[in-house]
Amino acid sequence: MMAENERFLLRVHYRKEGRLRFLGHLDVMRALERAVRRAGLPFCVTQGFSPRMRCAFSAALPLGAASASEYLDLTLGSYVPPDEALARLAAALPADLAPIRAAYVDPRSPALGAWLDRASWLLTLATDATADEVSAAVAQYEKDRIILGYKTIVDWDRTQQESVTALIEVGVTPQRGEGFDRVAQRIYQYDEVESLYLMSGGAYDMTVTISGRTLKEVAQFVGEKLAPIEGVTGTATHFILKKYKEKHLIFPVQEVQEERFVFE
User: Is 183:228 a contact under the CB 8 Å cutoff?
Assistant: First the structure.
């Protein structure tokens, strides 16, 4: 029997095409995990009350997007030749989700998310316009403020920087002749405010999303800047404990460091 701490990291390159491009990311993950089990590969599992297969996936694709270069990192408890592992997986997966190649990488190498630092996209547009015409149209949309901007979504839990996000319900008394707009302008002028919406129904009229470095910083913003605004009648703060999905992007599950091995 091998040393208990010995492990092998198999990196599998697969495609997602055809009808299966409409399969959601979580469904793809479950399909691949089932294929690993059907293939009889000696995968490792995490420790704890709810052990799961020790594997990592490349970032989620938009629903309906096909890809010729998706990746899966699978931790194995014993060595299986890459060609044999590839053949076993191919036999357990449909053609539209077929593995292309497999190879072992150093378990100490950067995580899959860090290794994949770029992507190339091919867009097929339902128009006969040329690339220059499309670029000109986008530029005009930006000029006309139809396209307001482009925002990067960061998973702060995977960085060394502390960040706190809160959703704040705000009660507002409408101003004569201006409704809610004047109060909204006073709220969104602050840099801490990420978004502001006028809501229907419920006990509150607006929802504000703000971010800060600490809970205290958010509390100070509410107490010193938001609550004293004329027309604001009350606030209720809800701190976000964990993000699962935002702007159609799924946040990857944090890997558990402790593990045990299963030999099949």
Answer: no
